[in-house]
Design goal:
Length: 119
């Protein structure tokens, strides 16, 4: 099994920045595609960003484009989500998830890290 552990969440003022980390352990593979999702109270979990194994392909939900950047350090088995210009509506529990390729479901999930943006 592969275990994913998110970290880096916290309380930040609007306009501030946070960097989330998703560290993988167990049977890790640098070929995994990794995505960030988030879930706010009363809302469904939504896709935020993804990155493929090489880091050459990324994608973002429209609401975070230009503000968030996903990256990965395969040597450290870690994926990052740099979040700038944070808004109160970014408040949510953020989860990372991994899959073998884009034809497979996201089989591995972390337990989430809370991000709270105050105004």
């Amino acid at each position: 099994q592969v275990q994913l552990q998110e970290s880096g969440g916290g309380l930040v003022q609007a306009g501030g920045s946070l960097r989330l980390s998703c560290a993988a352990s167990g049977r890790t593979s640098s070929s995994y595609g990794v995505a960030w999702f988030r879930q706010a109270p009363g809302k469904e979990r939504e896709f935020v960003a993804l990155i493929n194994w090489s880091g050459g392909r990324t994608n973002y939900v429209d609401s975070v484009k230009g503000r968030f950047t996903i990256s990965r350090d395969n040597a450290k088995n870690t994926v990052y989500l740099q979040m700038n210009s944070l808004k109160p509506e970014d408040t949510a529990v953020y989860y990372c998830a991994a899959r073998l390729n884009d034809r497979e479901p996201y089989d591995y999930w972390g337990q989430g890290t809370q991000v709270t943006v105050s105004s």
